[in-house]
């Protein structure tokens, strides 16, 4: 059975399907903006549910969304977030952040195991120890920070989509940023390739990764139940 938060997310998603194209575009921008705020996850879904009900009621009455909330959607969202009392360091936010970090680490560990350890084991035709380098720690930290930054940026600039000039500039800057980061990560990996953080039995690592992915699979089935 899915938990209360999962049920709320699913309900909001199903409700959002009833929006027409114009209202759905506004709703999507508002959704992105609120989702990257520092409100608790449950509080975000409650707010999103209220906004959806407002939008659907307005749509049923054949009124423009601007008549309901004005045309400054960012200010509308900011006023809601402020009234709800945003708290960046709440217990729920810390738990949510740790959950994302742990998932990110395990995903990157899995990629590292498959594309680094397995080729080495095949090359030497023997079961060698799994070595995790210092470069992995640094690149993982950078990747997670960049991922958080990109998500925050997309959410916070969701209302700039209508500005074509700004959108083009953002895409160019993103490409440049991506290339620079890729080069930096490559250099870090090359320079620190000989420094080992720890060495472990590959069967132990495989068991840990297997437990993680089995858990994620069961979690997915639970949410869909």
Structural class: mainly alpha
Strand order in the largest sheet:
1-2
The average pLDDT value, as a whole number, equals: 86
Shape: elongated
Helical residue percent band: over 70%
Q: How many distinct folded domains?
A: 2
Sequence stretches where pLDDT stays below 50 over 5 or more residues: none
**Helix run count:** 9
Number of extended strands = 2
Rounded radius of gyration (Å): 22 Å
Q: What portion of residues belong to β-strands?
A: under 5%
The major beta sheet can be summarized as: 2 strands, antiparallel
Helix-strand pattern, N to C? HHHHHHEHHEH
Tell me the distance between the termini.
6 Å
Protein name: Membrane protein
InterPro entries: UCP029876
Pfam families: DUF1048
Keywords: Membrane, Plasmid, Transmembrane, Transmembrane helix
